[in-house]
Amino acid sequence: MLLAPTLLIFLSCQQPMTTNSEIISPDTTMNTSKTGNPYYSRTDTTKLELSDTEWQKVLPEDVYYIARNKGTERAFTGKYWDYEGLGNYYCAACGNALFKSDSKFASSCGWPSFYEALRPASVRYESDNSHGMRRIEVLCGRCDGHLGHIFDDGPPPTGKRFCMNSIMLDFEPDSK
Ligand code: FE
């Protein structure tokens, strides 16, 4: 009589652990590393000064293209442009904490948009006069990877719009 319910409990307890390889024990190393990229860390804020050649060895092709060649993903194609999950966004190249979902807003531009960075040092800025435009480029404060641009047409309280490439963002949901 007890065999069936016991078996059911056993199977339901086992299922998440055996079918989802993403589940990692909740310790301090949770999701702070990335296979093949020894520079990726969500806790180490030490500035990284690597050559493009070194970055090319450790970054996926699409991340390298945006981060080091200052590429731009096509509008409305990235995974976060209309994403509304609660959590933090990290640099896909180095793991640096960049934005909180609290500062993300719905934008019609087709790229994930935020009105402020998580910390002032999360990002840095450079003037960008390429493509016949005068824009301000946003780079990762830790790895100098290109993230996107910042504009003055954002919502309160800052009036800024950090227009980012989804490819350069890793999202980590808030723990319950
Ligand atoms: Fe970075």
What is the gist of this entry?
By secondary structure, this protein is an alpha+beta fold. It contains three helices and nine strands, in the order αααβββββββββ.
Largest sheet: 6 strands, antiparallel
User: Which CATH class applies here?
Assistant: Mainly Beta
Integer count of domains: 1
- Distinct compounds present: fe (iii) ion
Share of residues in strands: 15-25%
Per DSSP, the total helix count is 3
| Neighbour order of strands in the largest sheet | 3-4-8-7-6-5
Rounded mean pLDDT is 86
Mind explaining what this structure looks like?
It contains 3 helices and 9 strands, in the order H-H-H-E-E-E-E-E-E-E-E-E. The protein has 176 residues and is α+β, with helices and mostly antiparallel strands. Fe (iii) ion binds at residues 91, 93-94, 96, 140, 142-143, 145.
Secondary structure layout:
Elements: H1 3-19, H2 52-58, H3 61-69, E1 87-91, E2 97-100, E3 104-105, E4 113-114, E5 123-128, E6 135-140, E7 146-151, E8 161-164, E9 169-173
Antiparallel strand pairs: 1-2, 1-9, 3-4, 4-8, 5-6, 6-7, 7-8
Bound molecules: fe (iii) ion (FE).
Fe (iii) ion (FE) binds next to loops.
